[in-house]
Amino acid sequence: MFPAIGIVILLVMVFGGFVLTGGAIGPVAEAVPHEMLIIGGAAIGALVAGNSMHELKALGKGLLRVFKGNSYTKQDHIDAIALSAKLMRSLKTGGPVALESHVENPQESTIFAEYPRVLADEALLHLICDTLTLLVVSSGTLDTHAVEEVMDNAIKTHFHDMDEPAHALQNLADALPALGIVAAVLGVVKTMGSIDEPPSVLGGMIGSALVGTFLGVLLAYGIVGPLATRLKQINIHDQQIFLSVKQVMIASLHGHPHALAVESARSGLPHMLRPQLTDLLDVLKGR
Length: 287
Description:
It is built from eleven helices and no strands. Helices cover 81% and strands 0% of the residues. It is elongated, with a radius of gyration of 27 Å. The chain has one domain (1-287).
């Protein structure tokens, strides 16, 4: 929502300010479609040339995420921490055998069933189940630091893929001013072919050519660059729920008390997503 509002404010202030200072919007509006055809077409061509179909689809999904916002709410963080804590408590009290049925088929697990949004999140579900499967098949004999390293690697790989659309957008933002210059140069070439026209006509043609430079800079620093930054912010926030799950599991494997394991995950969350410790403990107590 906020990216859309920001783009509207940007366009209103830029073009409104131009008109209020006496600028004629007509010539600009006339030139925009042609310049956008060149700049936009070149930008799309560059994206296609520099990315695979998989990455282009990921870019489309990334743009949707920019306008949808963060993937996880405060309640999602509570659910993820509570689920991880219950699973680790089951491991502590019943041993690896107590977890086997839950991690092999989480869709039929009574513990996972309490948290349907976590169950529907494929990436988060894999992180939990794959880690616990390692503990089950090793009968709980794995070194805790080795488990933490495996989880860190899984999270890093997942978010490396999630960051690719943001990198593609930033690369496009970096290229747009140059593509604007390409459009402007073509406009100047066209103007030079009509050098025998009167100054009033040449002035309009040169002005149209300069619109290309203007659009390239505006798109780069006013729209595409900020969208890339916003997508990076969303990825950072979304990563927190994975780190919370890891923190609960690793703290539990180190033998820390149940409440301390939960607090170690909760305290690492940003303030806007951080639940109260009492709320988390109440959930774990079934209140």
